[in-house]
Amino acid sequence: MKRREFIAKGIVSSLAFTIVPRVVLGGNGFLAPSDRINLGFIGVGKQSYTLMNGLNRCKEIASLAACDVDRNKLAAFIAATTKKQTELSKAQVEIKAYHHYRELLGRKDIDAVVIATPDHWHAQIAVDAAKAGKDIYCEKPLALTIAEGRAMVDATRKYKRVFQTGSMQRSSYNFRQAAELVLNGYIGKIKEINVSVGEPVKQCDLPSMPAPDYLDWDMWVGPSPYRGYNPILSPPLEDDKWAWWRGYRDFGGGYITDWGAHMFDIVQWALGMDESGPVHFNPPKEANSNTGLSFSYANGVKVNHVQWGVHNAIQFIGEKGKIEVSREFIRSNPENLANLKLTSADRRLYYSDNHYQDWVDAIKKRSKPICDVEIGHRTSSVCNAINIAYELQKDLKWNPHKEQFDNDYANLMRSRPYRGEWDFRKF
């Protein structure tokens, strides 16, 4: 054997005995620190428990921090997260509580954050998280305004972060199957799509009440115009109802951006419009109408916001058939389409059956996940444009490339004023 070959084989042999996989060194169910994704949660209301339970089932995840302006909710979430990590046989780690999210973002050992605040906080926190070098999982709808969504995309790209939007229906069989059937023409050319979700956003008319001492109400309002506390906006921990901040302007976008961000997202996916959007919005002209708007794409496909018989569901109507889909069902006419196995010749969409693990895998690969920030922005732009059209009661043309309307008033509504020193554009 030549001397060079002898040395090379000796090195390989020695490495085989001295390199131990880091997963072994982690012990107690946790990966070693260098393989682990340390997570911080920002906003720990009702939805955060679903996110925490799902993410902690990913072996790479360690939840280390949580932040909220409600002390009671924060303490309860930390206790539940500690219990969950124990149940999953993960190593015991201290989960530290924070009142201000920027303190959490300042921790160098936090790799990624989950943003589950009310919608009016999404943009500011996401931009700050990107600047701090954190990867991001942000609940849907991505943004409260069109301008905020674009800023979130730009900040994510500038700081090279991995961003998953919480439009988890893309990781569901029903919706992926429906979208692929539509995309591949199994019901022929699409003539019309009906989407049944609830009403648009409205002005907040709730009476102001004294804020409880466990809640920092001024910080809860944050960048939005100030208004007094009401428990409907931020229910106490013991109230199991969903908070209804999402129904009111300055905090949410009504059901249009709540369930609409799920259902219109699948329409965008099925039509191959993830990098684009509609070109016309046509609202009903009757005052206070909360249904009946339609929008259309450049290819002529028309989408109706209408109650077609099933709540929170989509009806795709093609020249050769029909597909109806919700979280509970997928059905078709002809009947055999619903569970048809697609062929190798068919176009296939990004496959994910676990929205959380998909984000984790994308972080490890430094790739785009199934619902990247641009996709989330395009969907929330559709939802926000619908709300604008309903409010103005005007037909609007939309340029999805320039992200501009043909109406000056509508263009002003693409953004909103921020209170105090908050500014989502500083990145």
Please tag this protein with its features.
427 residues; alpha/beta; Rossmann fold; Dihydrodipicolinate Reductase, domain 2; 2 domains; 9-stranded mixed beta sheet; Oxidoreductase; Gfo/Idh/MocA_OxRdtase_bact_C; Gfo/Idh/MocA-like_OxRdtase_N; nucleotide binding
Summarize the structure.
The chain has 427 residues and is of the alpha/beta class.
How is the topology of this model organized?
Elements: H1 3-18, H2 22-26, E1 37-42, H3 46-56, E2 61-67, H4 71-87, E3 96-98, H5 101-105, E4 112-115, H6 122-131, E5 135-138, H7 146-158, E6 163-165, H8 173-183, E7 190-196, H9 217-221, H10 254-257, H11 260-270, E8 280-282, E9 294-296, E10 302-305, E11 313-318, E12 322-325, E13 330-333, H12 355-365, H13 373-392, E14 396-399, E15 404-405, H14 408-412
Helix pairs in contact: 3-4, 6-7, 7-13, 8-11, 11-13
Your description of this structure?
With 427 residues, the chain is of the alpha/beta class. It has two domains: 132 residues, Rossmann fold, CATH 3.40.50.720; 195 residues, Dihydrodipicolinate Reductase, domain 2. The protein contains 14 helices and 15 strands. The longest helix is centred in the last third of the chain and has 20 residues. This is Oxidoreductase. It comes from Sphingobacterium athyrii. InterPro entries: Gfo/Idh/MocA-like_OxRdtase_N (IPR000683), Gfo/Idh/MocA_oxidrdct_glycsds (IPR050463), Gfo/Idh/MocA_OxRdtase_bact_C (IPR043906), NAD(P)-bd_dom_sf (IPR036291).
